[in-house]
Specification:
The complex is a heterodimer of chains A (876) and B (110).
Chain A (H helix, E strand, L loop, with lengths): L1 H12 L1 H25 L4 H12 L2 H10 L4 H19 L1 H30 L10 E5 L6 E2 H10 L3 E16 L2 E10 L3 H5 L5 E2 L15 E4 L1 H7 L10 E4 L2 E8 L15 E4 L3 H4 L11 E9 L5 H18 L1 H4 L5 E4 L8 H36 L1 H9 L4 H36 L16 H27 L3 H6 L15 H28 L9 E7 L7 H16 L4 E7 L10 E6 L11 E8 L3 H5 L3 E4 L13 E5 H8 L8 E4 L2 E9 L13 E6 L7 E8 L3 H15 L5 E6 H4 L1 H39 L1 H9 L4 H29 L1 H7 L8 H27 L3 H6 L2
Parallel strand pairs in A: 4-9, 6-8, 15-20, 17-19
Antiparallel strand pairs in A: 1-10, 1-11, 2-10, 3-4, 3-10, 5-8, 6-9, 7-8, 12-21, 12-22, 13-21, 14-15, 14-18, 16-19, 17-20, 18-19
Chain B lengths: L5 E2 L4 H12 L2 E2 H11 L4 E2 L2 H13 L3 E7 L5 E7 L1 H25 L3
Parallel strand pairs in B: 1-3
Antiparallel strand pairs in B: 2-5, 4-5
Helix pairs in contact in B: 1-4
Classes of the chains: A alpha+beta (876), B alpha+beta (110).
Chain lengths: 876, 110
């Protein structure tokens, strides 16, 4: 066995030496054989001839000996590869078109797969991460803290349950306070994850015992590097968060960003410091649901078992605190994408993109298959010569397959480069907010393996067609100089064009549908007018303003902003719709006094200044806006939106009526038009506006409607705030449309992806049609010449030669159209408001395909008509 | 000799070569001569098929080749049997004998 391998290695690496030895050995044989004949008296020439006859020709015997070396497969492969390179170099146009379309097709798949891999497939970077689960309530994503404590203490399925909350804090940086985002985490957070720090240590349960007295912090790697310059002595240093001193216990490892894949916090702080970080304490509040939970399952317990065993705990909690826990459930979901809430849409979107990329690649393969098959027909003379010299059909087919695989590998390598570049760009994209969202979609070994498999499969797929053609080549007609042609009417190859066209149709339909969907999404009434509005935000609570000073500050800023040139209306609020900062509370009708969940209405709540609705452009349907006269001494009032009015009373003219709101019985002074509050794709939602004169919130967004350019006004807003308090950090400054960018992101991303695919599909289809038409014409050049010579009209010639091509085109378009209709549900899940039954799309797609076909085939068609009959007849 | 030369069944050439080399190391031409002598030229062994077989046997480690000096002091490639080759020869010989016995039995059926 070893001897065998050793021999074969020698055959590869010391080939020349072996060949010389072989030659010498055979010559030696010849000499001795000759001597034998000489000795028996035969003359020298005759002796030489007989010796040669006995042995056989030296080249033939050498060839056989070389074959027995056991490396013929390898040698032949190497020969095929070198020959393939030569052939491909000779037709640079075809080769570059092939590599480019493969690079695009495979690259799209690689990029899409890498996104799927990073977000859905890759396990979290914690030990035994498959045991980590996100604990989700029946509705929403968060639990109350008392529920957390009870679940943690009463369960027997988790080795640990921890809670966390996304929160913003003010970091003191030399006099001014900067907003940084982080986590409030229970003491066992790092323990349950089994994470290891880079420097120092993490805080544990011991450091989370004393409410308000656990001032410890763990920094993220990024925070340590950018804000503290990677200071090696950071452990033990003190930082100031919201005015209090916290001791830095350690730094997390590079790439560790906690329990949510999209969110990259800068600091972790023990949960017992919650009241110090946020302005109100809810750790003992059963009515406040602010904590996200996750746990590590004990060994041997499955998710389903755990869910079953948590059912009695939920039932007990519902009995103990029925007011808030009625209908409580604990479900398990994978950790990392806020349980199932964004996991679903993300998985659907990324898989959809991957499928589309697959379709594009298929189209590229079909394209290449037909182009290469056409070229094989052109090479029939070369192949015929090889066959008659002794190459077997298998060898020739293998040769062509090798060429295809070379193209596929080249395309795959180019695709890798392309997608690494794209993925790096994607990973570095930052959302246009100060909330730290990042997608880490860098490729890992799984992605490269995927690329290899896809490349080789593509190569085999489109390589089959020319290889099969070569297999069928009959050398005789070729050598006689006759053109190649198959006697059959319809070959399998003819399927390729319709397949390409179908795929193109499908992809173009998807793009158009998506574009229409986005257009419609952009036209949805938002409930306010974002054009011409500038905003700027700051947080007085983080800057440690007390309520009276805060209120005075807000009023003063508002007055100054209203006086700015160009500003037609100004107001402030604690948050604006469709921004990242949304709060919701429950309200009840007036007559309901026991707060039972069945009468509960979940409402988005805002605290706004008088003049808000005018500034935002929100229409007032009945009643009035707030005024500065409504202050804390007046009865509690609110403005509600149309949806809430209908839910409470069934009508909208309800000014003067009352309901039970967050602060108690509240009187309605006005009803405004409904709009979008949390996301563009939400169902109609109730909204409630309280007046800032009665409910103070330090978080402030200043809103100014202006006739000047928004960026100018936004800069002015920043200046006004800075003049009044230079240490106050201002963020989220810009036009309202900019701020809305994040809300439109999913729809935009989907549209970009689909448009790119649509364009790729069109390009591929056009090249395919062009190639097929050109080939059809070149094959029948002589025939065209004859027809023209005997007087055929241009139209007749075109009909004869291109008729088949167009028939195939038509078949493909029809198939693609109906497939697109069938794929409607899938599209609808990806793109909001998408529907291919849109009449505009139904007209545009066939028109587009017809236009592409005509354009692509026009070149060859024109050439066909210009053929000089005499010249054509003389050819071949 | 007018009798038609017998064609070798597949694989038997290897057996014959091994046996020839078992007696003494030889170079390629000598093996060919010896086979011709012993079989009194009744076997149809193309000299050209000898060399691929020798190389194949060398690859499988049953014979090994050394370059030595021949009569008239020129370089010649000598082949000799290895230990594994010797074992293989025994196995193959045994198999051949059994095969011929069985085939003979079948042919002797009345």
């Amino acid at each position: 066995m070893l001897t065998d391998i050793w021999y074969r290695l020698q055959a590869i690496f010391r080939r020349d030496r072996l060949d010389t030895d072989l030659d010498e050995e055979l010559r030696w044989h010849l000499e001795h054989e000759m001597e034998k004949y000489l000795r028996s008296g035969i003359p020298e020439d005759e002796a030489k001839r007989r010796a040669r006859l006995a042995l056989g020709g030296i080249p033939q015997v050498s060839e056989q000996c070389r074959n027995s070396r056991g490396i013929s497969a390898l040698t032949e492969l190497w020969q095929d590869i070198r020959y393939g390179f030569r052939v491909l170099r000779k037709s640079p146009a075809l080769t570059s078109v092939a590599i480019i379309s493969l690079a695009l097709g495979i690259g799209a798949n690689t990029t899409a797969f890498s996104v799927v891999n990073s977000l859905i497939l890759r396990p979290l970077p914690f030990p035994s991460s498959e045991r980590l689960v996100f604990i989700q309530p029946a509705k929403g994503t968060t639990h109350s803290f008392p529920n957390y404590r009870d679940l943690r203490d009463r369960n027997n399925v988790f080795s640990g349950v921890a809670g966390y909350r996304v929160t913003v804090m003010g970091l003191d940086t030399g006099g001014s306070s900067q907003r940084i985002w982080g986590y409030l985490a229970t003491g066992n957070y790092f323990e349950v994850l089994s994470a290891t720090p880079l420097l120092g240590r993490f805080f544990g349960p011991a450091e989370d015992r004393v409410r308000g007295g656990s001032p410890y912090a763990v920094l993220s790697y990024g925070c340590w590097k950018t804000r503290f310059g990677g200071d090696p002595g950071i452990v033990g240093r003190t930082i100031h968060l919201n005015g209090l001193a916290y001791s830095v216990l350690g730094v997390a490892a590079k790439g560790f960003q906690g329990t949510e894949l999209f969110y990259w916090p800068e600091v972790w702080v023990p949960m017992s410091m919650q009241a110090q970080i946020e302005s109100f304490s809810w750790l003992d509040e059963p009515a406040t649901f602010n904590t996200m939970l996750f746990g590590r399952l004990k060994d041997g317990i499955t998710g389903r078992e755990a869910e079953a065993r948590m059912k009695p705990i939920a039932a007990d909690l519902a009995k103990e605190r029925p007011r808030w826990n009625d209908g409580l459930q604990f479900k398990l979901a994978r950790l990392g994408l806020v349980g199932d809430t964004i996991r679903g849409p993300v998985a659907a979107f990324t898989t959809g993109v991957l499928l589309l990329a697959g379709l594009v690649l298929l189209a590229a393969c079909a394209n290449l298959a037909s182009l290469l098959a056409a070229r094989t027909a052109d090479r029939h003379k070369e192949l015929a010569v090889r066959m008659s010299l002794g190459a077997g059909r298998g060898r020739i087919a293998r040769q062509l397959m090798t060429e295809s695989l070379i193209l596929a590998c080249a395309g795959g390598i180019a695709a890798c480069g392309l997608s690494v570049f794209l993925l790096r760009l994607l990973s570095q994209w930052r959302a246009p907010l100060d909330f730290p969202v990042r997608f880490n979609v860098e490729p890992d070994w799984r992605v490269f393996l995927f690329t290899c498999i896809v490349s080789i499969s593509s190569g085999l797929l489109f390589g089959l067609v020319p290889a099969q053609r070569a297999w069928r080549t009959n050398p005789n007609p070729a050598l006689k100089g006759m053109p190649a042609g198959s006697s059959r009417k319809w070959a399998l190859r003819d399927l390729l064009l319709p397949v390409q066209v179908t795929l193109c149709c499908l992809l173009v339909m998807s793009s158009l549908v998506a574009l229409r969907g986005l257009q419609r999404a952009l036209e949805i009434p938002l409930g306010f007018e974002p054009a011409g509005v500038a905003v700027a935000g700051f947080d007085l609570g983080l800057a440690r303003y007390k309520k009276p000073q805060g209120q005075a500050f807000q009023r003063a800023i508002l007055d100054e902003v209203a006086r700015m040139p160009g500003v037609t209306a100004a107001a402030f609020a604690n948050s604006v719709p469709l921004s990242i900062d949304q709060s919701s509370m429950s309200v009840f009708p007036e007559e309901v006094t026991d707060s039972r969940p069945s009468a509960r209405i979940d409402t988005t709540v805002y605290e706004v200044s008088p003049g808000y609705f005018r500034t935002m452009g929100t229409g007032l349907l009945s009643g009035r806006d707030f005024s500065w006269q409504d202050d804390e001494k007046s009865p509690r009032i609110a403005v509600i939106n149309e949806i809430l009015a209908r839910k409470l009373f069934g009508r909208t003219d309800v000014a003067g009526r009352r309901f039970r709101g967050p602060g108690g019985l509240t009187e309605i002074v006005g009803v405004v038009q409904s709009g979008k509050y949390v996301s563009l794709t939400e169902e109609p939602r109730a909204a409630l506006f309280r007046t800032a004169t009665q409910t103070y919130d330090g978080t402030t967004v200043v809103i100014a409607r202006t006739s000047a350019p928004e960026s100018q006004t936004a800069g002015g807003l920043r200046r006004v705030v800075a003049t009044r308090d230079p240490t106050l950090a201002v963020q989220g400054v810009g036009s309202m449309s900019q701020m809305l960018g994040f809300a439109y992101f999913p729809a935009r991303a989907a549209t970009v992806a689909l448009s790119v695919f649509g364009m790729l599909a069109i390009m591929l289809a056009a090249t395919g049609i062009y190639g097929t038409a050109a080939y059809a014409i070149s094959r029948r050049r002589r025939e065209i010449g004859i027809r023209m010579a005997i007087g055929a009209q241009p139209r007749q010639i075109l009909r004869v030669v291109l008729g088949r091509t167009f028939a195939l085109l038509l078949a493909g378009s029809i198939a693609g159209f109906f497939l697109g209709l069938a794929a409607d549900p899938l599209l609808a899940s990806v793109v909001y408001q998408a529907s291919p039954n849109d009449p505009w799309v139904m007209v545009a797609v066939p028109l587009a395909m017809a236009a592409v076909a005509l354009l692509a085939a026009s070149g060859p068609a024109r050439r066909a008509l210009k053929i000089d009959p005499i010249y054509a007849l003389r050819q071949e | 000799m007018d009798q038609k030369r017998l064609e070798l069944p597949q694989g038997t050439l290897d057996l014959l070569i091994l046996k020839t080399l078992a007696i003494q190391p030889l170079h390629g031409w000598a093996v060919s001569e010896r086979l011709q002598q012993v079989s009194t030229a009744a076997l149809q062994i193309g000299q050209g098929s000898l060399y691929p077989a020798l190389h194949r046997l060398e690859r499988r480690g049953w014979i090994k080749a050394t370059w030595g000096a021949s009569d008239n002091n020129r370089r010649a490639k000598f082949y000799e049997l290895t230990r594994t080759g010797r074992k293989q020869l025994e196995i193959d010989t045994e198999e051949w004998r059994r095969l011929t016995v069985v085939v003979g039995q079948v042919l002797d059926m009345a």
